[in-house]
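Sanity check

After download, print the first record. It should look like this:
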Amino acid sequence: MSKVYTTQELIQILADERQACLNGKRLKLEVTVSGNPVIDQFIKTDGLQQFTAYQDFKAAIHEYQRENEVSGIIWRKVTVKGKSLDYPEVHTELIALISDLEVLKAAKNSILEFWYEVTMEMDLYLSFNNSKQHQQIVTPDVERIAHRTEWASLCKWENSSFLEIILQLGWGQPEEAYYKRGRPRSGSEYIHAVNPGNRPIG
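Expected structure tokens:
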């Protein structure tokens, strides 16, 4: 029986392949910009060929995950105000298996509890328009959004004078939700918590 690659090994394989594509070592030569051979001969297509080669490779890795039931989940640790939480999330280059979605759903409540605890007294903002705009909201708004979503994830921006904790509340496939490709079957809302008087930067 042949060896099945682990989640961490697939992440490394994808990182190596991405670097090879960025360095021009992998090109999908049949890619054209316009489809018109007269126009395409005057347009540099290297970047598009590199991007397409990587996307094709990534799709093959995702198929490998499905066939061999290799999880896309990695475990993260976040520490805020002296409190820590270990939580699962799907790596941005991998897909979530059905079993991964169950793990994410099971972790949602503990992520929310942690977030509510560490963001007490902070200002809350809902981002929209691809995070270019933010609208101030209150905790009951977050609770309504959380009620209609399936899973959660966290992100933190911090330095000596600034703290922002972003709560992602999502549904459907995380890889589609991250890149806003899957609406309405997959998607997410982002809630930003910042110290009073500050505005979100993430």
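If your output differs, re-run the checksum step. Summary of this record's structure: Residues 14 and 58 are 7 Å apart (CA to CA).
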